[in-house]
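#struct-help
A.M.: can someone run this one for me? Single chain, 336 residues.
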Amino acid sequence: MARVTIIVVTWNSAAVLPECLAALRQQEFKDFVVQVVDNASTDETIAIVREFYPEARILTNFRNTGFSRANNQGIALAQGDYVLVHNPDVALVPSCLARLVTFADAHPQAGSFCPKLLRRPEGEELQEPALGEGVLDAVGLRMTRSRAARNRGEGERDAGQYAFEEEVFGASGACALYRRTALAVVAKHGGFFDESFFAYKEDVDLAWRFQQMGISCWYVPSAVGYHRRTFRRRGGFRHFAHLPVNVRLMSWRNYLSLLIKNERWQNFWRDAHRIVPRALAALLLLAVMEPFRWRTLRDWRAQWPQLLRARRSLVAGAGRSPQELRRWFGRPRLRQ
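D.P.: on it. Structure tokens below:
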């Protein structure tokens, strides 16, 4: 039985898959299997998997079930100690998986682990970058006091400011290593990835539930990968104006779902002056600024009973108090 199951969810991913699979082939750590879950691609995705990685296991859906459900299908099929959730537009340097697994083995109390993700330089070979040469894509997740989720370090020049192994709020769903036993614990309180999210912020929800259960996430800077991100943050509401309508809708809807499901009242009242304006802005955007999209609000309202059940379960089984969770809501702090 392989120690790691690598789950690659695809949807018309033919353009990026060859590099992704070639990088997996070159990993120094070999004790893994690749599970591809395809969401009804209409391009050459499946043919490329069979050409570049014929031993990969392939599960083909007849429709696009979303990032969350497809990953859950892969997790349900996984065996071994760890699951690596791996976007098809991510390519790992050869030492990445070995360093993640070595760190995870040495920290059995932790449940998730994230590498240093850099923006993918066009036309360059994958290699260990020299300090100061790369632009960061994500070094874990952080949360603001308004409960907006951010990729730590996104867009910054890698000058050594994130060179330390440290505990973080959570791991970006672009590339995250999860301990299977930890996933089993969290699954009792809302499943693995919440399928009502479909896509976007499902990794934040999972990270928040890990924190509430008292299961830590660690950033491992020696493990490096590259991310050819489709959408890049531009800052504030300009970022959302740049995104396709369906992405904006899911992002704001899922932000509200995060609050209903995970926010503790004691922490809400502390930061209500930050949370309420953002939540109202989300409702305004969903109801007014996206014409003919009222169905989104109706469908979201129908999810409330499920979200509230998960909330009650999380509160009852919490391993950390609201006061202990507060450390994650605020400005990022860099080690000196």
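A.M.: thanks! The chain has a mean pLDDT of 89.
D.P.: also worth noting: The chain is about 40% helix and 20% strand.
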